[in-house]
Specification:
The chain is an all-alpha fold and 86 residues long. 86% of the residues lie in helices and 0% in strands.
């Protein structure tokens, strides 16, 4: 689990330092890890890794959903747009 996470972070850092796209490097790293690393893990390691990343995915999606919802209800933004007549 930690090796997969560190490999992903390392690919992101290398891309950012070299001026390339960090998101694209994470996509390529995720594809490579799912193709080569996940099938070679033990069953317990595979389950732990998949459940942990699924949990992190749901948590980050929830945080982003709450942030966008709170940002959409910002009265300052609505007051500015109403004052300009847009």
């Amino acid at each position: 689990m930690s090796l997969v996470g560190m490999l992903s972070y390392l690919s992101y850092l290398i891309a950012e330092v070299s001026g390339l796209s960090g998101i694209l490097s994470l996509f390529v790293c995720g594809t490579a890890v799912s193709h080569w690393a996940i099938p070679r893990m033990s069953e317990a390691g595979r389950v732990t890794t998949l459940v942990a990343f699924d949990t992190l995915s749901h948590l980050s999606e929830g945080i982003i959903f709450v942030y966008v919802g709170m940002d959409a209800l910002d009265p300052v933004k609505w007051g500015v747009s109403c004052a300009t007549g847009s």
